[in-house]
Specification:
The complex is a heterodimer of chains A (about 100) and B (about 575). By secondary structure, chain A is an alpha+beta fold. Chain A has two helices and four strands; from the N terminus they run βαββαβ. Chain A is globular, with a radius of gyration of 16 Å. By secondary structure, chain B is of the alpha/beta class. In chain B, the strands form four sheets. Chain B has a six-stranded parallel β-sheet with strand order 3-2-4-5-7-6, with helices on both faces. In chain B, strands 15-14-16-17-19-18 form a six-stranded parallel β-sheet, sandwiched between helices. Chain B is globular and about 75 Å long. The chains are: A alpha+beta (about 100), B alpha/beta (about 575).
Amino acid sequence: MRHIISILVENEPGALSRVVDLFAARAYNIETLTVAPTEDPSLSRMTIVSKGSDDVIEQITKHLNRLIDVVKVVDLVEHPYIERELMLIKVRAVGKS
Amino acid sequence: MEITGAEIVIRCLHEEQVEHIFGYPGGAVLYIYDEIYKQKKFQHVLVRHEQAAVHAADAYARCTEKVGVCLVTSGPGVTNAVTGIATAFMDSIPMVILTGQVPTHAIGLDAFQECDTVGITRPCVKHNFLVKDVRDLATTIKKAFYLARTGRPGPVLVDIPKDITRDRCKFDYPKEISMRSYNPVIKGHSGQIKKAVQLMLSAERPMIYTGGGIILGNASPVLRELVDLLGYPCTNTLMGLGAYPATNEKFLGMPGMHGTYECNMAMQNCDVLVGIGARFDDRVIGNPKHFAQNPRKIIHVDIDPSSISKRVKVDLPIVGDVTEVMREMIALIKESIAAGHGTNKKALGHWWEQIAGWRTKKCLAYDQGPDVIKPQYVVEKLWEVTQGEAFITSDVGQHQMFAAQFYKFDYPRRWINSGGLGTMGVGLPYAMGVKLAHPDADVACVTGEGSIQMCIQELSTCQQYRLPVKVINLNNRYLGMVRQWQEIEYESRYAESYMDSLPDFVKLTEAYGHVGMQITKPSDVEPALREAFKMKDRLVFMDFITDREENVWPMIQTGKGLSEMLLGSEDL
């Protein structure tokens, strides 16, 4: 099943690596990943989309909670949620009329 | 007053009341070593290989209630230490590992003895830090100790670049520390505990199954009270041996792959299984599908939510400190008894009868003839000669299982072995760590001729620090456990499990300045052990030439269930 995991972490070097390692160590692919600081600059929010068996994702979620840098983990798919995609397209124009 | 980073490291260790650290110097940690030279509050133990420094600190933590501390240099110092760190991580051992790093300006430039320490160790530590500013050093070390010892314990690494140890700042060691992202749960959910107690009291065929969590949580006295109050059968895993006295009637022996028949049958056939500080791992439960065939209710108490329902679905999870949860359980059980309810005595009587039946199998029986020494016999005699009071460390393999099966541990923190990672070579450095923590106690390392050679250089450390441990080498001239698997599952094709050209262990030991003995006759086993343990101030290496092809029984083969044990070669 497809999961969208939202993770609030300390904005520290290495925090992203710790999170991503949990997926990599189980050979799970991350489909999309965004990271940005929150309104509190000492925290970052990561949003990860991954596909996998529910058991394994649950285990990953538990291990995410176990990471010292992680403040909060929510699997958005467990609740009603709105999903939006935004595509930015860069066009190379030659400039001839 | 401003002091250097190196001085800060030492002051932090003093604040934490560290008495021993294990390490090996090198370029990146020379400022720290210079400060170690100038102080007297703790002793530094110089090992012969960094792996042994970590193992010794790990054992030091396992046999006390303290945090083990070790110090190694950058690059190869760290990579050599990784096996030790992973070993401690798998068994949740509280440790602080201080590592040197190349100066901050050289990081990432392929400097001499540089490696990405936080990157390499990330998957095998509870947490790690790279210190980039001397003003963060004291707080970081404080955090490391705090993280190592609280919640589910584990190793924490602090990587300190060389320039940070030379930089100066004011020293201020925080008294308290709190981290918003780290709040281990201590108190269990009262509603869940109440439900668990109801389930436990209504059980007809109850079983209490506990693991390393009881040892780490210093919960052995409370566990004893709980088991005795209920009168239920109890088992301790390999990591939990000694939590409940092995000589007590209610103890059914160890569970799992080489567990006792009565214990595995009780695990499989119980109607309520109470797991406390144990993690239902593959060596304990066998095939989880087979385990699930028998209907039973499972209660699981653990401090780590990620341990719950990992391999086996649990009906009643309780997250919390095992001592706190068991105390609450005991209070509720006492209430129930006072109100005239309590346990189901009649059903319990039948259950004990059934267990008594399983016990008649005498699954650990072996036949000690007059000619060849059986490894089990050596461990049994070791138990007798030391009156069950010794600290026993082991390496990994058949000898480890024989030690676990035949040395009856009556106290916690006396059995020191690598249960999770299964690291060959830990035995001798483990014995060093234990002997430093308990200089007056008897310490024996039960090992084999394969494992001991993985860290044998530490005989030199034992000489330097006068660590009179006793090495019990069960020498069968085979990598015994590998050979056993090859015999049973690979039609006796003994691929690379025979070790040709072994050293003369007696001469080797003597070369290091210790006493060596070789014992070949069964009748010499006990007298030799008595003689060795009389030599209080000497390390004695006892090379027991044992039965070449003895196997560890019972055994559950890969993929089989708990009740599908092989009890001996006749079952093959």
